Amino acid sequence: MKKYLCIIALSACLFTACDPKPAVFELETKNFGPNAVVSIQSSENNETLKAENITNGNQTFKINIPKKGYAILKTQDNENKEEFYFYLDKGSYKGILDGAKSNTYPFTAVPTQQGEEFINFYKLKKNMSKNLFDSLAIAEHEFDIATRSNIMEKAKKVDIWREKKHQSELEEIKAFAKKYPTSEATIFLLNRFGRADSETKKYLSIFKSLDQDVQESKMGKKLFAEIMQANQMMAGNKMPNIEGETPDGKKFDLSILKRVNLVICWVSYSGKSRKNNKVLVDLYEKYRHQNVEFIGVSYDKNKDSWEKIIKADKLIWPQYSDLLGAKSPNAKNLSNYNATYFFLVDKNGIVLSNNDLTLDFVDSELSKYLAGRK
Question: What is the pTM of this model?
């Protein structure tokens, strides 16, 4: 009998432990159009966990087996799209989803401390960015109604305010990190912001302001590695060594560098790279006799294909590859796995320019550094 009761008790414990309690969303939804949709997405793999038509009223929906972790609530109402970060876990989420107040965080009550941290973040964000959002909205409206005579002026104004918005977002994360140094949400927010390669110093400063436990978390260690990776490619640092060989078996040597050098990270099977090659060939002819060198670094795996495109596209500047594809240390160290990617170095391999250096600006950047301007 005792054995039987033990089995019942054990079964009950196991059943309770495995009880898939849902995440329940109880939202007041209003001011959305007839085809508006709300969805919940995992931030880890962008999997859509739930999607519902917005009904404008007291709306309830569930995720029956929520996977604990960072997630995104998204709304789409015709062309209007918004997204908000939160922490998904079992329990009750309450709030207001208002299509007329798209910048207002929807959750007012959440089941976990991690969720409360996002409520605090969005409160801080609202206080810091209200005037900026208003100015951006005005600029975007003026651009929408611009005439042919002033459209370029209005587009430039929108770009300025959008960049100010990006910079404000980083300042908001910085302020949140200072106020809540024990929160891993800062790591998540920095990852989502996605500018470790162009805002490296600011990223490192924010990261160092966090508690040691946060820095040494799994997410923290991964972000720190990305920051350090980006840091070594910042202007003023010496670029990592280029691995691999030329098609005829010569290894990279700094002695080939000239006064200004354009490093081109590319792959032979990319249509974009092939289009870029046409422009680069003309640029090389323009600069090759002005103490400038181009250096190709390919992330190819097939040597025959790589050599064939070099010949077909008439790429006569030095070309290197270790033929390891995405596993190449070049891919990690030089361009953070981006191809195509451009940066400039001097005769000693010191990085001159790499932040947002697109093919459109290569010509002007080469001229600038040849003229001795920084």
Answer: 0.69
